[in-house]
Amino acid sequence: MQKKKKLDLEIAILGGGFAGVYCAQNLGKALSRSSRTRIGLISDENYMVFQPMLPEVVSGSLSPRHVVNPVRHLCRGIEVYKASVEKIDIRNKQLTLRPGPFSPEILIRFKHLVVGLGAKVDLARVPGMSEHAFLMQNVGDAMKLRATVLARFEEANLVTDPDQRRRLLTFVVVGGGYSGVETAGQILDLFSDINKYYSNVGSEDFHVYLVHSRDHLLPTLSRSLGKYAQEKLAARGLKLCLERRVKAVTAHQVQLDDGSHIESNTIISTVGNSPHPLVTQLAAETGVETVHGRIKTTETLQVPGYDWLWAAGDCAAVPMQNGEICPSTAQFAMRQGALLGKNLNAFLRAEKVKPFTFKGLGELAAIGHHTAVAEVMGMKFSGFIAWWMWRTIYLSKLPGLDRKLRVLIDWTLDLFFPRDINLLSPRYSRTLQEAYLREGDVLFRAGEPAFSFYVVKRGCIQITDTGGKPIKTVSAGEFFGERALLSDQHWRFTATAAEETQLIGLGSQEFKAILENSKGMRQMLERSADQYRSSQEIDRMCATLPGHLLEQSADSIMTREIVRLRTDASIIDTLKRFNSDRHSFYPLEDASTGRLKGVLARDDFYHHVQIHGLNRDATVAAIPATELPVVRPQTSIADCIETMTRSGSNKLLIADESDKLLGLLSIRDVLAAAAE
């Protein structure tokens, strides 16, 4: 197993959004090049997304590459770590990072911590929303939605059923804020520009719905501008469902709280923000005050009670001069981050820190078709002039001269050339992947990171420990990998194909998603994971038992008087036997040879009767037998315990060389003998 690497930082900044990046930028500028202060920015991605322009990525007005900026370009002189934060250790001022699947965890010790993690999206409150809704949080979401919208057009162009075509071309946007309104407007623009290329798609087939819980759109703007946006969008065909909430979502339908429903295969959610889990954990452990899950700070962006903890952006509740909390918008996060960087530098120099005094310059929303609404410095604008202001202001705020030029070129070309309708949908690998191994091929080795849960389709896999000792043989129809994925995601053993083998692999993320939503399956796999114990683990378990007992043979303590069945026993007679001798399973012997054929489980018997009825002519030979580990009478108790552990069973059958049943040994027999 690889050891964790340790790093020491003076300042650790969590989050690569507006707050984190602008904080790092200002710290980098304030500290001299000769300064030995180590500053690290930790982010899930190595780029910052300019989110106000994401809707234009959906419509194809902008290239996805042009709305993102490499964090390393923006934060020169700052150490940037692309990694996910697994844990924040408050007591020891330490972070646990996971750089990727091939690397060990990294521990980072810090003196000051800046939290700029933003918020997460939680769609679980609406049944079906998590499974079926598209998001608009990052550039990947925008690319995926664009590909999906174009794919719906391509599919609808070939569909002859008008109801199915209408469902394919009906798009439901949830949320009447900036992101929802702008996304709906861009989808309307996309349709008006590309519809002429789809001969079998008419305007009567295309519908965009916007579901909003308020009585007007864009509630942070004035009501008059919200009404203006409604009228303009409705005139272009947007169907508004105001004062409505989504109650449930299926693959083909959106159900509203008033009992109505919308037939659609595509729903886009721009609502559902929730506190970041790490912020929730941090608040719980420190006991700091929160406002709707956001860490409450002072006006200088420090967290009260902790001189080393700072917060900014969507995860922070920063007070304004009027006593209200700053809204979760880019302009506030940007300026909070910049001030935090300056204040932290001043704090380190024992200088005076400054309060956050920004009041907001205004709000803008582009609603498509060269139209927008804006409220800037108390003045209201709408129509083309507002659209021009939207583009001018956001272009000036876009970080990086190269990105400004690229976006300006995109916008200019968009005025003269047809809209791009290339369906660039990345073809990701299937969730279920098949792997072929020749005899002797090694699937993985002990100590390597674990990525998948495997099912043996055909062939055989030999699991061995680091010393080469066999742990378990996994045959066709069986599975393995659950122990590593349920623990630290590293293999403890080596897996080798004992013969030509074909496997089906399920990725670790999908595996975890299934277990998080199925308590029964998780319990079953946790029990099966116990089969993969090293020899050292089994030795430690056996060390608690008397040594003389472990050396005894299985036949010395086995149960000899056991109820058994013959394969020619009728269903009726077996049922009578069940009523008189109540056991969970019964050894099954061949009627002609007397050899052991496995065991008949009581549950399997009743399941067979439920399906086939109480057939008086049928025998138990028609019911599939269950395999139970079989050992010879001379097998030591220590080896019997290992066999039971490896098979995940607490019982063994004892049979002679000719497979004649001699008795039964259970873990209860072993413990009873140890207690005597």
Cα shape: globular
For the CA atoms, what is the radius of gyration?
A: 33 Å
Unreliable spans are: none
CATH architecture of the largest domain: 3-Layer(bba) Sandwich
Distance between the termini: 41 Å
- The total tally of domains equals 4
Q: Average the pLDDT over all residues and give the rounded result.
A: 89
Bin the strand percentage. Answer: 25-35%
The overall strand count is 39
The level-1 CATH class of the largest domain: Alpha Beta
Q: The CATH topology of the largest domain, please? A: FAD/NAD(P)-binding domain
Biggest pleated sheet:
7 strands, mixed
Question: Which class best fits the helix and strand makeup?
Answer: alpha/beta
**Tally of contiguous helical segments:** 21
Helix percent reads 25-40%
Please describe what this structure looks like:
- The structure is a single chain.
- With 676 residues, the chain is an alpha/beta fold.
- The chain contains 21 helices and 39 strands.
- The strands form eleven sheets. Strands 1, 2, 5, 6, 7, 8 and 21 form a seven-stranded mixed β-sheet that branches. Strands 10-17-11-12-13 form a five-stranded parallel β-sheet.
- Helix 1 (18-30) packs parallel to helix 10 (330-348) and helix 5 (139-156) runs antiparallel to helix 6.
- The longest helix has 19 residues, at 330-348.
